[in-house]
Amino acid sequence: xxxxxxxxxxxxxxxxxxxxxxxxxxxxxxxxxxxxxxxxxxxxxxxxxxxxxxxxxxxxxxxxxxxxxxxxxxxxxxxxxxxxxxxxxxxxxxxxxxxxxxxxxxxxxxxxxxxxxxxxxxxxxxxxxxxxxxxxxxxxxxxxxxxxxxxxxxxxxxxxxxxxxxxxxxxxxxxxxxxxxxxxxxxxxxxxxxxxxxxxxxxxxxxxxxxxxxxxxxxxxxxxxxxxxxxxxxxxxxxxxxxxxxxxxxxxxxxxxxxxxxxxxxxxxxxxxxxxxxxxxxxxxxxxxxxxxxxxxxxxxxxxxxxxxxxxxxxxxxxxxxxxxxxxxxxxxxxxxxxxxxxxxxxxxxxxxxxxxxxxxxxxxxxxxxxxxxxxxxxxxxxxxxxxxxxxxxxxxxxxxxxxxxxxxxxxxxxxxxxxxxxxxxxxxxxxxxxxxxxxxxxxxxxxxxxxxxxxxxxxxxxxxxxxxxxxxxxxxxxxxxxxxxxxxxxxxxxxxxxxxxxxxxxxxxxxxxxxxxxxxxxxxxxxxxxxxxxxxxxxxxxxxxxxxxxxxxxxxxxxxxxxxxxxxxxxxxxxxxxxxxxxxxxxxxxxxxxxxxxxxxxxxxxxxxxxxxxxxxxxxxxxxxxxxxxxxxxxxxxxxxxxxxxxxxxxxxxxxxxxxxxxxxxxxxxxxxxxxxxxxxxxxxxxxxxxxxxxxxxxxxxxxxxxxxxxxxxxxxxxxxxxxxxxxxxxxxxxxxxxxxxxxxxxxxxxxxxxxxxxxxxxxxxxxxxxxxxxxxxxxxxxxxxxxxxxxxxxxxxxxxxxxxxxxxxxxx
Length: 814
Description:
CATH class of the largest domain: Alpha Beta
Oligomer: single chain
Radius of gyration: 30 Å
Number of helices: 25
CATH architecture of the largest domain: 3-Layer(bba) Sandwich
Shape: globular
């Protein structure tokens, strides 16, 4: 005989538990089905002693169960007591094998053969039972696990936690909490940021890193896990470290097979897609509702509110609005037109390409972190060279891009549905053009973290942003009167590849005709001479290679490898050849570039017989410079030791131009032959220092300079993240007197940087520090003071692409 209830709730996590409590409160017949012998298995499996957060703070809690930030054990105890007190009907050790039937007459068959009849079904099963697995090779005997129950169980181990979300961060913090355990803890984060983690967790993680309790490896993945060792793919190449255990917390995917068998449709075929739901959480099968993590809402407070609301909807309270309704109403109140929150969310989702893959519930959470704005025709949205890394998406109207710096009337339109600002999002550089509304328009501004989170959670959004950025990069690079329709075939076949430092994209002697566009990072071109690789040239982001084999045919004539960890856009040779055939101007451009590369080959070939030692010197100098960070630099200071007389005028001039604090250490740094790379900022293409600046005080200026503004709080994150040691934390000395006052009356320190003794003796008790680094003397007439002050011309500042080639190295006398 089957049990029969009004509501069958599958899963006793925060969402299901809250739904059952509401059903009990309303007196509705119900059953809460849990496959384990305890409530809320997801929270139950949290590590012991874990502090559970109650975010978002601004969101009210509607559930009949209490929930506030606190220890895992306290929260579970409260829920157990309140569930029993509310007389919730719970069926433990009951796992649902299938759901059949229709609204009003569903049958849930359990794995033990028992059945439950229900008028409606609420799926609150979560996704934790379907974790994402490590993709690296795992050797025999290697310890890899996907759950951490009790950090106290592990002692004196080298442990690597994989994953930059909340679960990974909390596991790493738990393992490193007690120094007496003797664990050496590392956290591997694929990106440079932690977009999906709570800010409090990120701060706690950074604090643990700063105090040496654990080590963070950003932009790092595991390429192999072996017994006692792990192989890391880092920004700077391969690293092998001792490893006893790997704990992988890389998220999870919905259990599609079970859910789809019940007739529930998903938003797309992607493994990480979520079910299609109505605003009342009803799925494509009437009578089956989906809430919680399975609906795309992983936060506990959201889940509990959904559990409360879905039972209200089933009970007939269709006028109930979600708890976040007032917050979203305030966000939309200044937009033209009378639309409800649900109507606005659907309006934005269906009219913006990168949002189409989101569910209505995901849209609500997304808009909590984003801002929808209305612009009148002619309004400036942002100006050229303005700081900013947010992404904009056009829901209505269009915008105009001012492509000319001198004539604002020369514009290119971007239409409704598309995005702009992606360059700042990807590179962190200042805005490359002024953009204004071409007509009245509505656009959504998406913060950088929200955009990164969007891409990590919605694969379709990531693909669309990549497609648009590739399309625009090709149009900008190749010009030649090309349009979007011209490059459509090339873009459709394009593929973004991540290349390790030192890994080749083209190998000399191989066959192939694909074109490679350097999206981020930089490449080195080498050719074998006498059996040894000889440096030919350096290619920064925005360059492309591979046209020689495509145009002239034959095998590859040189090897192209990554100077640092880079991204390239691989363009299919057949598609690009077809484009060149249709566009003669593009073919002419490619032939000119090919001729320039052939000139370099001819130059090096001419040197190979009688001047092999000179060729070796060129190659060795270039390799040395790349090892010193020139491979990711946009501007670097070099000193010719044959000309340098050690006067230190460069350091003194730097100090005199910057509040008495020099940004340069001439003697520090490394030297090859007579070429010296002093300790001075490289102004990296993707600055490490920007990765974690709480007040967002680090920016890139119009000439590429990376500088720190007055909002610096002295946290030291930039100093710790810089791999070249060019940032220091120091107290700002008092303002210097005039030269006459110093000469006649001995007031204040003299030229250059004051000594530490003088600074501390005259600092008026001020101990606050700020980050100090080279800013290329931005805003100072005449350019970098260090170069202007050098009496012998030994100091030069150069962009690597203007210096790193064999011909230029020869002319420089290297």
